[in-house]
Specification:
2 copies of one chain form a homodimer. By secondary structure, chain A is mainly α. The interface between A and B is large, with 39 and 38 residues.
Chain lengths: 140, 140
Amino acid sequence: MQISDFARLTGLTRDTVRFYSRLGLLRPRTNGKGGRHPYSVFTDKDVRAVDIIRISQSLGMSLKEIATLNEERREGHLTCERGIEVLSAQLVRLEAKATELEMMKSYVRAKIDWLTRGKQGQQPDFESYARGGSCGSSCF
Amino acid sequence: MQISDFARLTGLTRDTVRFYSRLGLLRPRTNGKGGRHPYSVFTDKDVRAVDIIRISQSLGMSLKEIATLNEERREGHLTCERGIEVLSAQLVRLEAKATELEMMKSYVRAKIDWLTRGKQGQQPDFESYARGGSCGSSCF
DNA sequence: TGTAACTGTGGACCACACTCCACAGTCAAG
DNA sequence: CTTGACTGTGGAGTGTGGTCCACAGTTACA
C-alpha cells in the first residue's frame, strides 16, 4: 500500500510516516512508480512495526533508541547470539519498567485505600513502595 | 534545605529544579532569606515528589500531565471522593501501561526463545501478543 | 567590612518529535 | 491529453524538556 493508506491504517500523518522513514524506523520499499522520487510502499509488517513503535515510545524510549534496537535486531538476525543478547538487554529494561509500574500501582492503590477508609492510619508514603522497604502499621 | 542541597540530593540540576518549580511540579516554600527574590526551600517531601516525577516520566507521562495530576491530587485532598476519583483514573492508566508492558515482555521473551531454539517453528509475531489473539503452533 | 559562596531572573540555546507548507513531479481516469 | 488526486523534497515552525549564561542581589564567615 502507498503512504496515504498506510497513514490511515496506522493513524499516523503522512508527514510522520515520512519522518519515521527518514529515521530508519520504517523501511518502505518502492514499486516502480514515482520516477525520480520513488513512491514508498508499506506492508502489514510495517503496520505492526508502528504498533511496536507506539508502545515502546509510551514506555519512554526515544525514536533513536527504537531505531537502534530495530537495527540491531535486523543485524542480530545474522548472528543469533547477538540477537539474543540485544533482546535480553531489552527484556531487562522492560522488567525494570514493570517494577517501577508495580511500585506506582501499589502506591496509588494504597492511597485510594487510605482515602476510602476515611484517612485512617498513616498516609501512604511513596518511599515504602519505592525501595521495597518495610511499612509501618499496615504490615503483618 | 536550599536549592543546591536539594539538587544534589535528587540528582537534578539547579536549573531543572527551578524549571520544575515554574511548572508547578515542585512547590518550594520560602524562608525569610533572599530579599526581593526569595530563596526556595525544599523538604524531604519534595525529594519524594521528584522520585514520583521521574517514574511517571519514565512511564511516558509529560510534565504537564504530572503537574495536573499533582494539582488535582492536592485539590482532591479537600474532597475525598474527588481524590479517589482522580487516583482511580490514574490507576486505570497505570494498568493499561502494565498490560502494554506485559505484551512487550511476552513478545521479546518469545523472540528470545525462538532464537535460542535455533529458529524452529514460526517466528513470533507481535500481533499474537498485542491483541491477546490465539497463537498458532505454540499453544496447548 | 570585605569577599566568596550562594541565590533568583531573564533570555538564549539545544535536541527531540513532530507538523505545516509551497513546490514540483507522477499517476490514473475520463 | 487534460485534470485532479497522489507523491516526495526541502525548509520553516511548534511544543516539550531541559541546559547554559551573564547579571545582580543576598548571605555567611573571617
